[in-house]
Amino acid sequence: MTQTISEPLADVAFEERAFHWRSAVTDRLTHLKLQPTDRTRGYGSHQARDIGDLLMTDWRCPEMEGEHGSAMAAQEAECLLLFMVTTGRQIVQTQQDTVMLRPGAILLMSTRVTGKIVIPGELTKRTVRIPLTALAPYDTGTGVPDFLCLETAANPLARLTQDYLAGVDAQLGQMSAIDVEGARNALLALVAGMLRGRHGSDVSETDFLPFLRRQLENWIADHLTEGAIRVGDLAAAHNVAPRTVHRAFAATGDTMGAIVRAHRLAAARNDLVHTTASIAAIAHRWGFCDASHLGREFRREFSMSPGDYRAAHGIA
């Protein structure tokens, strides 16, 4: 549930310290080519706390520069990263946006976004890595954006999320497995609310595809136990052409297959945590061919087997 990783010992060689830092960045954020501007100042330190499958990390960084290229983005399952700076500044530059992240703001960014990161001076920040599978059961509006920056002074949910993470941090060591699962789900509800709130409620002609996409995803979630889900089924249920179904998912950078997979994995994860049903029964219930099929898909998403995940996070 909780890990603490302290600063590397002073007598450890620089390259070994660099290896530990880069491994932590890869495991708890994403693949980044990151280098300190001044090698003599080292790579900093981090402290890791897991809220179930949500990886919360506090970082202390020296002046640094880095990049996240398309080849790196393709190396892992897509996740949503939440950034909060506590002291200092971090510049995030993508093809569409450049943001100077300071205290008092929350940045939500997909790991598929490519670009550059500049830390112009000493920095402390908190990050949370959220698998997209974890968000699948929640209403995020028209999907998960590539890049969203929210000022906590102007956005009540962003401010509440910041305060909530501070509260979870203070209590995590005393939480039972049931408490951690509740904290995880509450944080996901807050993140989904921030994503959903970036759009107004009115649906115009130009909003049709994102609106349809939301309805399609709701239908998928409601029919997971009924066998294979086909494009034709979705099209018929919503009185649209199959090509319109594809366009609705493509409008948010997704495919129907990826969304179905995410919901099936989210449902299987929920059963692993909350029930004592066998892995084979869970696989059958949520549309996987067998326990081996579920195991392969689960390890790809969560980096551990269903059995190991249940042992670590199960509360039944």
Query: Which series of helices and strands comes N to C?
Result: HEEEEHEEEEEEHEHHHHHHHHH
CATH architecture grouping of the largest domain: Sandwich
Query: What is the CATH class name of the largest domain?
Result: Mainly Beta
- Spatial order of strands in the largest sheet: 2-3-10-5-8-11
By secondary-structure content and strand pairing, the structural class works out as alpha+beta
Terminal CA distance: 16 Å
Q: Uncertain regions: pLDDT < 50 for 5+ in a row? A: 4-11, 200-205
SS elements, strand count: 11
CATH superfamily of the largest domain: Jelly Rolls
pLDDT averaged residue by residue = 85
Textual characterization of the structure:
- The chain is α+β, with helices and mostly antiparallel strands and 316 residues long.
- It has twelve helices and eleven strands.
- The strands form two sheets. Strands 2-3-10-5-8-11 form a six-stranded antiparallel sheet, sandwiched between helices. A five-stranded antiparallel sheet has the order 1-4-9-6-7.
- Residues 4-11 and 200-205 have low confidence and may be disordered.
- Keywords: DNA-binding, Transcription, Transcription regulation.
- InterPro entries: AraC-bd_2, AraC_XylS_family_regulators, Homeodomain-like_sf, HTH_AraC, HTH_AraC-typ_CS.
